[in-house]
Amino acid sequence: MTHKRDLRIVFMGTPDFAVATLKALIDNNYNVVGVLTAPDRPAGRGQKLRASAVKEFALEHQLNILQPTNLKAESFLEDLKALNANLQIIVAFRMLPKVVWQMPKYGTFNLHASLLPQYRGAAPIHWAIINGETKTGVTTFFIDEKIDTGAIIQSEETEIGPTTTVGQLHDELMAIGSELVIKTVEQIETDSVTTTIQPQTDDLRTAYKLNRENCKIDWSQPIDTIYNKIRGLNPFPTAWCYLDNDDNEPLSVKLYGVEKREENHNNANGCIIATKDELKVACQGGYINILEIQLPGKRKMEIKSLLNGFNFSESSKLL
């Protein structure tokens, strides 16, 4: 019978996605001796300092919190070492220096929201949808010196529905991921881990960091490409484009809920067809029917609310 290890865990994470895993560790009575999370950041119109979601949860459960700005600082390394952890778990944190991830006896493992080696990088959930994947998953792996390349411990697969948004998939993977972390900890706890080296392949898709440029809609692309981009960025950080309504400077607008309608037409790409009840935009292979939109300085609104008070010209288009 395998001996059960006495684990002392340091958890590292920052956003909501990480909270589910930290909660699962607490609910399963694991000894979390410390929590690393990002420093408080200015947020909102008042730019008041705001704690991370992980910090708020850690405070509620009276956990020891570290918020280093420099992961190589001697003072931080001394504080981390003083926790006497023998296992470190990372969920949506930052790249660690070797001196940190090598510190615990049983290693440091990460939960990544893709089926590695596919979608290494900062935004795996978004890019899986943007690229039209029909499946994805979560993976636990031991940290090494490169980004998301370490030996795989476990993975769990799930399907991506044809209308699934990144918000929906985020929440699903958050739940699946927290369960996978517990399974991984149980294996480490009982010394029953078997790892798999990530395969070397040229057919890799990367989860690049999202920015304003790669979130912009190109209305000359095929309907599926546009539709997948919009749902892959809904609700955050949101796909955007320009609204050209003739009489004004083009407006930067964000698109949230949309539907696609595949049909033949002779309209120019980006051409807007507006009625009292709907607004659709022409593209290769059909129309994107806009259900939710956000204008500059306004809140997100249903398209019927926009149509009640906004006049589109015959030459209105999205750019």
UniProtKB/TrEMBL annotation:
Formyl transferase C-terminal domain boundaries: 209-311
InterPro entries: Fmt (IPR005794), Formyl_trans_C (IPR005793), Formyl_transf_N (IPR002376), Formyl_transf_N_sf (IPR036477), Formyl_transferase-like_C_sf (IPR011034), Met-tRNA-FMT_C (IPR044135), Met-tRNA-FMT_N (IPR041711)
EC number: 2.1.2.9
Positions bound to (6S)-5,6,7,8-tetrahydrofolate: 114-117
The protein's enzyme class: transferase
GO molecular function, a single term: methionyl-tRNA formyltransferase activity
UniProt xrefs under SUPFAM superfamilies: FMT C-terminal domain-like, Formyltransferase
Entry keywords, A to Z: Protein biosynthesis, Transferase
Catalytic activity field: L-methionyl-tRNA(fMet) + (6R)-10-formyltetrahydrofolate = N-formyl-L-methionyl-tRNA(fMet) + (6S)-5,6,7,8-tetrahydrofolate + H(+)
Gene3D superfamilies documented for this protein: 3.40.50.12230
Formyl transferase N-terminal domain segment(s): 8-184
Gene Ontology CC, one term: cytosol
HAMAP family: Formyl_trans
Similarity comment: Belongs to the Fmt family.
Cited function: Attaches a formyl group to the free amino group of methionyl-tRNA(fMet). The formyl group appears to play a dual role in the initiator identity of N-formylmethionyl-tRNA by promoting its recognition by IF2 and preventing the misappropriation of this tRNA by the elongation apparatus.
Name used for this protein in its record: Methionyl-tRNA formyltransferase
Protein source organism: Winogradskyella thalassocola
